[in-house]
Amino acid sequence: MCLARRSATLVLQVSVLACVLVTQPGCTPDNATSNRSEIAAEATKAPQSVVDKGPLRASGKPASDERAWYFPATASEYAKMVEPELGVPPKIDLSEAVEIPIYVDGVQVYGNRRRACDNPGFLGKDTVSGSTLQRHEGRTADGKPLPDVVWVSFGRNLTRDPADLIASVQMIGYHRKTGATAFFESSDKLKPWVKLDEGTLRMRGVMPWIDDPAEFNRAFVPPERSRLQCVQCHQADPFITNDFITAAKMPGTDEPVVPILDENSPFWVIGGDNWDMRTVHIPGNSCLECHRVGLSTMSMFMENGWDPNAHMPPNDPGSLAADAAQLIKVLREGPASVEGATWVVPPARGNPAQTVGDDYPHKAPFNDPKPASKRKDK
Q: In angstroms, rounded to a whole number, what is the distance separating the alpha carbons of residues 129 and 50?
């Protein structure tokens, strides 16, 4: 069971984010250029200088790890922070995006199919027609191309009743050489900007951009302290892919809209310097020949009905069951349970991949081993 290949039926690489609506005013585009270095510098200071402490649990402990949150409070401020690495976020016109088709017995269908289709999402959400994907070339604020930067925008339609629009729009920016990554997420309530085509439920509409910071901040948020680390699901690299996602192709080609990365792809999150970036490495494990494997991501898919040995490797499903069993053993019992297994963090900023041990300072609970009896994916 290799969990991803360039032609994979199902590639475990990343994109489930939190959905919240904020209405904080932002900065003007001029400020976005002139003070971006101050914003970036501020984000490397103690996290409390960027975001106030959040609510406490009943135990008196913070609801999330304050040390891990080096993000500004608004999307417009985050856009300024990521600009030196990734340029500016794209302008999103959902009508220009590629619709993600869903199929039943090879025939495209519409509406809410839940899991009853050929290519369900396996993300714990219904599979609904009308979602979209678009790949955008990176650009500077003055329009200069950044060929090493790619942005992907994802319009996710979750509407059950066409009269009650429930959808979100996400943006992921990625630098292919340095691994720099940024995550933006919208609210689930997009009625000010998005509508659905009758019958097909295809998403339409233009999302606010950074030239209107207040509106951009209404539409989008950066990663938030009260939410999961994005890398809990986006563990292996910035982009989650599966049969649902890879059904959307670049126009006129058989290439998925979402870039397919490999085991050597660099990856780090701007603002997430203290996030848990670990994935497991097992010498000789064939599942790791083409890509990294995020155990939390793998577990999420399995919890939602995905059987790795029924899908992977795509050319001979089930032929790597022994390798898959090693990964699942690490998932259940930790790396010490499999000979040679270690935690690694990906290449980043020109540095090679690093093996890390128990002294790794950024551990998060999602990488803790949990017995099958405590998991839904048993």
A: 39
Contact 87, 249 (CB under 8 A): no
Alpha-carbon distance 41 to 259, whole Å? 30
User: Per-block average pLDDT, block size 10, for the chain (378 residues)?
Assistant: 38 35 30 34 36 36 51 96 98 98 97 91 86 98 97 95 91 98 92 95 97 97 90 93 93 96 95 94 90 87 84 84 92 94 96 96 92 54
| pTM summary value | 0.81
CA atoms of 200 and 183, how far apart (whole Å): 28
- Please answer whether residues 18 and 156 qualify as being in contact, where contact means their C-beta atoms are separated by less than 8 angstroms: no
The H or E element that residue 89 is part of is none
Pairing of strands 268-269, 180-186: parallel
N-term to C-term CA, the chain: 17
Smallest CA-to-CA distance from 291 within 15, 6, 4 is with 4
Distance, CA of 135 to CA of 138 (rounded, Å): 10
349 — alpha (psi -120 to 50), left (phi > 0) or beta?
A: left
Burial class of residue 251 in the structure, from the number of CB atoms within 10 Å of its CB (0-12 exposed, 13-18 middle, 19+ buried):
exposed
Long-range contacts of 138-145 (CB under 8 A, 24+ apart): 138/86, 138/87, 138/173, 138/175, 139/87, 139/88, 139/90, 140/87, 140/88, 141/29, 141/32, 141/33, 141/83, 141/87, 141/88
DSSP string, 41-73: HHHTS-GGGTS---PBPTTSSBSS-GGG----S
Distance of CA 331 to the CA centre of its chain: 20
Which SS3 state, helix, strand or coil, does residue 288 take?
helix
